[in-house]
Structures are given as C-alpha cells and as structure tokens.
Amino acid sequence: MNSTDLNQNIARQLHALRHSSLTPSKERDWILDQLQDEGLTQEVMKLSVTALHILSALKTDDKTGIELANQLEVTRGGVSRAVQNLLKYQFLTSHQGIQDKKKIYFHLTDKGRKVALTHDKMHKLIEEKFNILLSSYTISEKEQMLKFLTDFNRVEAQIFEQNKKTN
C-alpha cells in the first residue's frame, strides 16, 4: 500500500474513532463559531453529527433517505431521525420523485447550504492538518497505525454489538 492510500485509510479509521467517541461536540462547536453571525446557533445546537453529514451529502444533488443511509453508512432510522430535525428547522425541504411518487427526495435550503459549506470547510481543514501530521511518519509506521486503528474500531464495534444483544 502506498503512502497516499495509507493516509486515506488511517483518516477513515480515525474518522470512525472520532465519531464513536466524545468528539462530536467539538465539530458542532467549531461550526457554531464559524456561523455565529448567521443567527443559526440555537438550531445548529440541535443537530446531530449525522444531520451535519446529511447536509454535506445533499450539496450536489437531492437524495432519498435510503441513498443517504447508504452513502453515509448509517442506519435508515438514523437518517430518518436526523432528517426530521433538519426539516423541522428548515435546513431541508422534501419532494416526491417525478417518476416514482413513492420516493421522497430531500433538498437543501439556503440555510442548510450555509451549514453544509461550513461543515465541509471544517473537514477540509482537518484533512490538511492531518496530512501534514502524517507526512512525518514512514510507510511502516503508518501501516502499524492503520492496523491498530482498524483493530481498535473492530473491537469497539464488537463491544457495542455485544452490549445490544445482552440488553
């Protein structure tokens, strides 16, 4: 595996780790700092990390809940809960499909686009800083990091899956 592939895989594993841990509030706080002049503070405070990622996923085109769940690798229920909040606070609108009236598509409002662009700006900054950090490690060190992070995320997932089955 080359250095670029390793960087991307490590970033994916760290992203999974960050979103399973205590840091979602750091993302929201950063976004709130950027949007403080937009008057969106109270509404953004009520958005989940999934909701923020849904906004970003809708920047280029409208999508159904199933498409969002697949793209973001989250449950349909998670998307449904997040979408309800996004609709409530008018970050999204919904409309029926033209060909298939059963399909409901979600569309960003101007307000939702502002939050999505800010969220993407944060992820771009994280990626830039992260690439600078990773450039100081050898390929061998990156392979060890990736192995550890992959194993850590697998064990964590097993713990939580096991906990669901016992409750």
UniProtKB/TrEMBL annotation:
Keyword field contains DNA-binding: yes
Domain of life: Bacteria
Gene3D superfamilies for this protein: Winged helix-like DNA-binding domain superfamily/Winged helix DNA-binding domain
Record InterPro entries: HTH_MarR-typ (IPR000835), Metal_resp_HTH_trans_reg (IPR052067), WH-like_DNA-bd_sf (IPR036388), WH_DNA-bd_sf (IPR036390)
Key words of the record: DNA-binding, Transcription, Transcription regulation
Molecular function GO terms recorded: DNA binding; DNA-binding transcription factor activity
HTH marR-type domain: residues covered: 3-154
Record PANTHER family: HTH-TYPE TRANSCRIPTIONAL REGULATOR PCHR
Protein's UniProt name: Transcriptional regulator
Upper lineage: Bacteria, Bacillati, Bacillota, Bacilli, Lactobacillales
